[in-house]
Design a protein that fits this description.
The complex is a heterodimer of chains A (429) and B (422).
Chain A: E1 3-9, E2 12-18, E3 24-34, H1 39-49, H2 59-68, E4 73-80, E5 84-94, H3 103-116, H4 127-142, H5 148-160, H6 174-177, H7 182-195, E6 198-204, H8 208-219, E7 242-247, E8 253-260, H9 270-281, H10 287-295, E9 299-307, E10 312-319, H11 324-340, H12 345-361, H13 366-378, H14 385-393, H15 397-404, E11 408-416
Parallel strand pairs in A: 2-6, 7-11
Antiparallel strand pairs in A: 1-2, 3-5, 3-6, 4-5, 8-10, 8-11, 9-10
Chain B: E1 2-6, E2 11-17, E3 23-28, E4 35-41, E5 49-51, E6 59-60, H1 65-72, E7 75-76, E8 79-80, H2 81-87, E9 91-96, E10 101-107, H3 111-122, H4 129-147, H5 150-162, H6 176-180, H7 184-194, E11 200-206, H8 210-220, E12 231-232, E13 245-249, E14 256-262, H9 270-288, H10 293-300, E15 309-314, E16 319-326, H11 330-342, H12 349-366, H13 370-381, H14 390-396, H15 399-408, E17 415-421
Parallel strand pairs in B: 3-11, 13-17
Antiparallel strand pairs in B: 1-2, 2-3, 4-10, 4-11, 5-6, 5-12, 7-8, 9-10, 14-16, 14-17, 15-16
The chains are: A alpha+beta (429), B alpha+beta (422).
InterPro entries (chain B): Metalloenz_LuxS/M16 (IPR011249), MPP/UQCRC_Complex (IPR050361), Pept_M16_N (IPR011765), Peptidase_M16_C (IPR007863)
Domain Peptidase M16 N-terminal (chain B): 63-175
Pfam family, one (chain B): Peptidase_M16
Chain lengths: 429, 422
């Protein structure tokens, strides 16, 4: 069950976990970058790679190849973990015993081709592909407003972290897209592939020695000096609470509160913080669920979310526009209750058990396992799931109360209707 | 217990029927940390008109009542049932769709206690005037949330365009106005009619002891006899679509669209439905999947992006295909697709064979996750299908079945376009 780690070449690390309960083999590849001025270009690369490789020149043919490989799937995503920008490529292959083919070899070879040998025309990417994908990325950036619930959270983070790199949207900006062409994007891509740290996680019923041999064969590429990614700054004091309102065509108001926790991802205080967030808004046992939803019928959802790698905590809720002040007061009252130590044994125990359950459940998903190990790496922690659970179980109610001192309200964001307004925004200092 | 095996994917499940008529299916997944159980009734938002067993008159209830009932089942005289699950570290949940209401939990510990809890709370309704009024505010906000969701709206507007009178056009949660009419008596009436074990199924999966699980279930079912037939009254839906175009203005960056195709070959479940379901899904892949000419053309012309998806929903009494996504020009997308459909000779049998392989892979993947197995099992069960028959039925499908679906289902007459635009 152990995770085996080998370095394939400079800055390419392979991790293998042999588990025989899954019917597929998952290969998750993470390419790490610093979240900054290159965000837009970096986010565009996966879409361009998907359009064609040297051998398989079109997206259609790549799709056909994967379908023929017993419905293998390749998906990509770009997201933030603190001020670290990550491209993730997930290749999932049917396990060999179901199909009698050396599918792992075919898969690893294809992954290498996909990542390192894209289709090149005159020292650049295919111009038409780049133009199309730029247009699509522009549409994706603009269509953020479609999903109001997520957009409200994104907007709160943006306002809260103004001036910090964390406020950069994971797909970058439309202005930066205008600067990109097939030549300069290709140059930037080469720089990424030569200098960025790459982690590959293979999880499934495999022979680890064979996997290592395969990746040595396919991924033994020449690289330059590998970029070392700076740590994300998580400490920030709050001078004054910001109140932000956006007016959109919505029938329901979206209230989002952003807090600074001032706790780093691997600090001892992180574990009580995780419980703090759970007790406040982590499930049907939480203070927000009980008070905002069940007792007051103000909302269908009222919950918290931690941004572990930036030291943020968010509270989100969808409410009747006229209930803004009432809901805000009630939420802040729950935060105050935490500070006063008014936490029942039921709230505490339920949260602890819920965290334990969700940590244990990671063992049943190859991708969640890969994500867990990758995140632990970023946090400079060698803790496995069991170690993580042990640390959680050592936390006492007092530790949670102590952590509440760290947590400072930074931004109150409200998305309201075009007609509605905010009754005299907030009076909390 | 009866064993149901599938050697190809190396999975088996056990089946037993309780004297009350409850169907019980249990599946052992060795090495899994998580357990998942789901207790479902064949009752959804479509069941708004029915005759209660033993009565003669038709009962009609307000829109959204099945979903309302689902919310209220979590309340017991002693408090919230969520609390009991939370004490065991389990996460409980529920959902309501057109045909089904299901209660479920996922756990990694105390599985048998949780199973007992699940069986008992679903058999124990507790409604008061007060707790019903309280829920109206909560569900009101749930309805509002969906009102602001353009993907949900484009989908329901499409259903409204496809159907004249079928209840599938009614929003699952109802409206703020329709739920305001819901009272205690109505809820008890719906409960008594549809929550009899003979109208229900229980499925559990994980690294669990099959006999012990079965005993817990059978020991805790209160009913000892079967119920008479519930007569569900669905209106006679004409074959033609209701209207071929519908649009709504919302706060979106660019138009979102759903092209719908109404299925007129309906009225059966079982393997026949599964075969039709898979044939239709394969047809949609050939027509507009990632490896199709259509997808490539639309993409290269800048008419679609990677939000473009196809799907078939096939229930016993209704069904439809959806092709949807974002586009600056949804009409042009629909025109190009109808053009392709006008000449099915362009599709190739070799592509069909490859897509079949893709579906095999997809099926295998579904068995990686206990939640996914549970959800899929229930969804198929409500159509009289056992999920383990999937591969056998898939193998049976011939190219001619695909051509038939192109001819009789995916055609201009059956099609509508729903658009949400800025």
């Amino acid at each position: 069950m152990d995770l085996i780690h080998v370095q394939i070449t400079d800055g390419i690390n392979l991790y293998v976990k042999n588990i025989d309960k899954f019917k597929t083999i998952s290969i998750n590849t993470y390419i790490h970058n610093y979240l900054g001025k290159d965000a837009t270009r970096f986010a565009l690369i996966p879409s361009i790679l998907r359009r064609g490789t040297k051998k398989i020149k079109t997206y259609k043919d790549i799709s056909k190849f994967l379908e023929g490989l017993y419905g293998a799937t390749l998906s990509s995503a770009v997201y933030k973990r603190g001020e670290r920008h990550i491209q993730q490529y997930k290749l999932e292959l049917a396990e060999e015993k179901y199909i009698n083919e050396d599918i792992l070899n075919v898969g690893a070879n294809f992954l290498k081709e996909f990542l390192f040998n894209p289709l090149i025309v005159d020292n650049g990417f295919e111009k038409a592909y780049v133009n199309q994908e730029k247009e699509i990325q522009k549409n994706r950036i603009e269509s953020r407003i479609n999903e109001k619930t997520k957009y409200a959270v994104d907007r709160c983070i943006e306002e809260m972290c103004k001036g910090e790199n964390y406020s950069i949207y994971e797909l970058g900006s439309i202005e930066d897209l205008n600067e990109i062409d097939e030549k300069n994007l290709y140059r930037y891509y080469c720089k990424c592939m030569n200098t960025l740290p790459i982690d590959i996680y293979v999880v499934g019923h495999v022979d680890p020695d064979y996997v290592i041999q395969l990746f040595h064969k396919h991924f033994n590429v020449e690289r330059e000096k590998i970029l070392s990614i700076p740590e994300t700054a998580v400490k920030k004091s709050v001078e004054k609470v910001k109140y932000v309102t956006d007016k959109l065509d919505v029938t329901q108001g979206k209230l989002t509160l952003g807090f600074r926790t001032n706790i780093s991802p691997n600090e001892k205080a992180y574990y009580p913080l995780l419980l703090y967030s759970g007790i406040l808004g982590g499930g049907p046992f939480s203070k927000l669920f009980m008070n905002v939803r069940e007792k007051s019928s103000l909302a269908y959802y009222a919950s918290t979310r931690l941004e572990r790698f930036k030291g943020l905590m968010l509270i989100m809720s969808g409410i009747e526009i006229d209930n803004y002040q009432k809901t805000l007061d009630l939420i802040l009252q729950q935060v105050e209750e935490m500070k006063r130590g008014n936490i029942s044994n039921y709230e505490f125990d339920s949260t602890l058990k819920a965290v334990r359950t969700s940590m244990n459940a990671i063992k049943d998903s190859a991708t969640q396992l890969s994500d867990f190990y990758m995140s632990q790496n970023i946090a400079h922690s060698n803790d496995d799931i069991e170690d993580f659970i042990n640390k959680i179980e050592k936390v006492a109610i007092n530790d949670v109360v102590r952590v509440s001192e760290n947590i400072k309200l930074d931004t109150v964001y409200f998305m309201t209707g075009r007609k509605g307004g905010v009754a005299n925004a907030g009076n909390m200092q | 217990m009866q064993e149901i095996c599938n050697k190809t994917i190396d999975e088996k499940m056990y089946f037993a029927e309780h004297e009350s008529g409850l169907k019980i299916y249990l599946m052992h997944k060795k090495g899994y940390t998580k357990q998942f159980a789901i207790f479902a009734t064949h009752y959804g938002s479509n069941d708004c008109k029915f005759i209660i067993p033993g009565e003669n008159d038709i009962t009609q209830v307000p829109d959204g009542i099945a979903h309302f009932l689902e919310h209220k089942m979590f309340e017991e005289e002693e408090g919230s049932i969520f609390e009991e699950f939370s004490k065991n570290g389990a996460s409980a949940n529920a959902f309501t769709n057109f045909t089904t209401t299901a209660y479920l939990f996922a756990s990694t510990d105390k599985f048998y206690e949780n199973l007992k809890l699940l069986v008992n709370f679903v058999q124990n309704p507790y409604f008061t005037d007060e707790n019903i009024e309280k829920e109206k505010g909560i569900i009101g906000q749930e309805i509002r949330m969906y009102e602001d969701d353009p993907n949900w709206r484009v989908y329901f507007n499409m259903l409204d365009a496809l159907y004249h009178i079928h209840p599938v056009k009614i929003d699952i949660a109802g409206t703020i106005d329709s739920i305001s009419k819901i009272n205690k008596e109505m809820l008890y009436k719906c409960y008594k009619t549809f929550y009899h074990p003979s109208n229900m199924v229980l499925f559990a999966v994980g690294d669990i002891d099959i006999n012990k699980s079965l005993k817990i279930i059978t020991d805790n079912i209160k009913e000892k006899s079967k119920q008479g037939t519930i007569k569900r009254i669905y209106p006679e839906e004409p074959n033609a679509v209701n209207k071929d175009y519908v649009e709504q203005k919302m706060s979106v960056s660019m138009p979102i669209f759903n092209i719908g195709f109404k299925d007129t070959d309906v009225g059966y479940g079982g393997k026949k439905l599964l075969k039709k379901d898979l044939s239709t899904q394969i047809s949609l892949e050939l027509l507009a999947g990632r490896s199709s000419d259509t997808y490539e053309e639309l993409y290269n012309e800048g008419l679609i992006d990677n939000t473009f998806e196809t799907e078939y929903i096939g229930e016993i009494d209704h069904g439809y295909s959806i092709i949807g996504g974002q586009s600056k020009n949804p009409r042009a997308v629909k025109d190009l697709i109808l053009n392709k459909l006008a000449n099915t000779d362009n599709f190739k049998e070799e592509d069909f064979e490859r897509i079949k392989k893709k579906f095999m892979g997809r099926f295998l993947r579904a068995f990686n996750s206990v939640d996914c197995i549970g959800q899929s099992f229930i969804s198929y069960y409500m159509k009289d299908i056992n999920i383990l028959d999937y591969l056998d039925v898939l193998k049976e499908i011939q190219y001619i079945d695909i051509i038939n679906r192109f001819k009789h289902h995916l055609n201009k007459e059956n099609s509508v376009l729903s658009v949400v635009k800025p």
